[in-house]
Amino acid sequence: MKKVLVLPGDGVGAEVCHAALPVFTLLNLPITLEFAQIGWQCWQQSAQPIPAQTWEKITQSDAVLLGAITSKGKQDAEAELTPALQGQGHKYVSPLIEMRQKLELFANVRPVYSIKPGQRPFRCVVLRENTEGLYCGLDRRGIPEEYRSWVTHTNIDRSGHQDVAMSVRIVTRFGMARIIRYAFEYAKTNNYPSVTYADKPNVLRESGQFASDIFWEIAAEYPDIHAEIHNADAVALWLVQRPERFGVIVAENMYGDILSDLAAGVMGGLGIAPSANIGAETPYFEPVHGSAPRMANRGKANPAAMFLTIGLMLEHLGFGNEAEKVKRAVTWVIQSGDTLTYDLGGNATTQQMADKILEYIQNAEGNEQGNVLAGLVEDLAEA
């Protein structure tokens, strides 16, 4: 029996989550669902976007299914705390970043493929390194004394060392080797013909060359998989023009973030884009459309990304056949075009589109059981 922790989260996350959850009942899998709290309301009330009780449940689960999380800037985060918690030095950290780092979920997996009518066939995946790069948290205002010998710039001289902000991009052999090897193994397991490393080694000359050297070292171990390095901006262009040329695209944190959202746009939008975060401990799975607070409780959010995210999770948990059923159902509903949310050109509500997807799965399950029974009857007759 597998245990899945459901964290509905904020905004439309809770809506798409609850609309899609009946799929577990339809598929009749050995999975138990538990629920806990996470997100902005937790931060407002306790200055902990991930309460201690939720952390405990995360560590006891086989996977986490996350709806969506609201994150805001430093000033808004302080202002929206309850008055008793304001001015106490609480620092808001995105729950997503906290989970990735504490659980060592180093690989953000973003598969994209042709799913809308009229698209030419393509199938690729963007793998984003989750734990280092420009998003590792080394972001500060002011240049400390001990940094000033190497953090130099004409505009720093003009502004003064305190009127400057800086971010540091961390690239380690451990981190890059781990994500690059994961990329080649992912390509091998999932029958992708190529791995493309997207970076800017022509500009980021030291960290870029360092990462490139690691890439080629590991690529040599996989002679049957085509390996290449291209500038991230060129990869962005080609993703729009010729997505079918790619297999696995792997990148450090920031470039992977940008390219994966762009790839989702090529697929059809964030409303149909699933994601997984995989690593050393409990993985979590989430649609990538965000919490969209302005759309909350309006019944307009597209549930397709949540269904496809559940499919990714089922595949990870070893239920590959059921994952394929979910993917086929979402594809059929989008291709048929008669029950779509506004982002796909329709006027259906979140629940109406979810019900259509569930209906397809239910009918498919019934037909499958009917075929099995028919086969048994035929075998008995022949005997």
Features:
383 residues; alpha/beta; Isopropylmalate Dehydrogenase; 10-stranded mixed sheet; two-stranded antiparallel sheet; 14 helices; 16% strand
In short:
This protein has 383 residues and is α/β, with parallel strands linked by helices.
* Mean pLDDT across all amino acids: 91
Low-pLDDT stretches are 369-383
Number of helices: 14
Summarize the helix and strand pattern as letters. EHHEHHEHHEEEHEHEHEHEHEEHHH
Helix content: 40-55%
Provide the CATH superfamily of the domain at 1-108 and 281-383.
Isopropylmalate Dehydrogenase
User: Can you tell me the CATH class of the domain at 1-108 and 281-383?
Assistant: Alpha Beta
Shape: globular
CATH architecture label name of the domain at 1-108 and 281-383: 3-Layer(aba) Sandwich
Identify the strand order in the major beta sheet: 2-1-3-12-11-4-5-10-8-9
Protein name: 3-isopropylmalate dehydrogenase
Family: Belongs to the isocitrate and isopropylmalate dehydrogenases family.
Domain Isopropylmalate dehydrogenase-like: 3-357
Pfam families: Iso_dh
What does this 3D model show about the protein?
By secondary structure, this protein is an alpha/beta fold. It has a domain at 1-108 and 281-383: Isopropylmalate Dehydrogenase (3-Layer(aba) Sandwich). The chain has 14 helices and 12 strands. It has helices spanning 12-20, 22-27, 40-46, 52-59, 74-79, 95-102, 154-159, 173-189, 205-219, 232-241, 253-267, 304-316, 320-336, 350-382, and strands spanning 2-9, 31-35, 63-68, 107-113, 123-129, 139-141, 165-167, 194-199, 226-231, 248-251, 276-278, 284-285. A 10-stranded mixed sheet has the order 2-1-3-12-11-4-5-10-8-9, sandwiched between helices. A two-stranded antiparallel sheet has the order 6-7. It is globular, with a radius of gyration of 23 Å. Residues 369-383 have low confidence and may be disordered.
